[in-house]
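Annual report, structural modelling task.

Input specification for the PMV complex:
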Amino acid sequence: LTKSVTVSAPGKIILTGEHFVVHGSYAVAAAINKRVRVTVSESKENHSSIVSSGLSSKLDSNDEKFPATKAVIRQVQKELGHLSEPLEVRIESEIPAGSGLGSSAAVSIACTAALTRFVGSTIDPQFVSRIAMMGEKKVHGNPSGIDVEASLRGGVIMFSRKDGVKTIQTKDAIQLIVIYSGKKRSTSRLIAEVARRKRSYPNFFQLLADSASYQSREVVDALKDGDLQRLGWLFNIAQTELDWIGVSTPFIDKLIERISIGSFGAKITGAGGGGSIIVAAKPDAISTIINSISEEYPQTFITSIPQEGLRWE
Ligand code: PMV
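The model returned the following structure:
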């Protein structure tokens, strides 16, 4: 029998504070009902490889495929030693790549955990998030760590670089609509553009960053009270600020406008520049909104939050 281990980790949405969290603000994120599954097994070949949606790459090749996953596997091999046999690392993802829904973090988390379990070591959450961050740095340049923590822990989290992660209890499950615009973008490029804007307008940027922290506390209160209307209002404020720092696009603005009748509020989630939006819809308008856009945006879905983090399959 071939030894094999499968784990899964969720994608995430950021409810408030994206980008500003890179510069020290508080942000709130939640795991979603779309997951990545990673299976590690002994390989029948004489080399280790990574396989995902029809693509495959040898671990020791220098092609451009799977840079983050390769960094994660090499680091686990280095730190945990005894991973000498040829392995197959198989990735199956329900999260579109480049959509702002945290697919890369979920892959790195699931991969680190699966490899750790494969060698029989116990899972230390700090180890998993530290190694997964190395993968994130390969693709994002300067990640804050919020994606990795949301995927690992699940639920709803408040996060800052200084204070780390805190789990938030919600009153009830909350339903949000997630619309992937279909427009892929590069998180690292957007992070770099925001940093440029911060250098040009440091005082103004600081005001917005402080405001993002304040909004995050308000979002936590809205979630604790189960107050969807207040959450939507906070989404609208966050969206305005994200627009000011240049990460919304006319296309996204139009999409938000289009669903505005049935919504309390909507915003970009994640790095922006395309990617996905989240909508706090009026409960009796959810199906109308979805029906009105699902043909054009087939990757629209409802997620309830909270959701489970890393889990064994
Ligand atoms: O779009 P995503 O899933 O890559 O989210 C990135 C969130 C940022 O705040 C823009 C970056 C970060 O690491 O916090």
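Residues 14, 18-19, 21-22, 100, 102, 140, 143-144, 146-147, 187, 191, 270-271, 275 surround PMV (CB under 6 Å).
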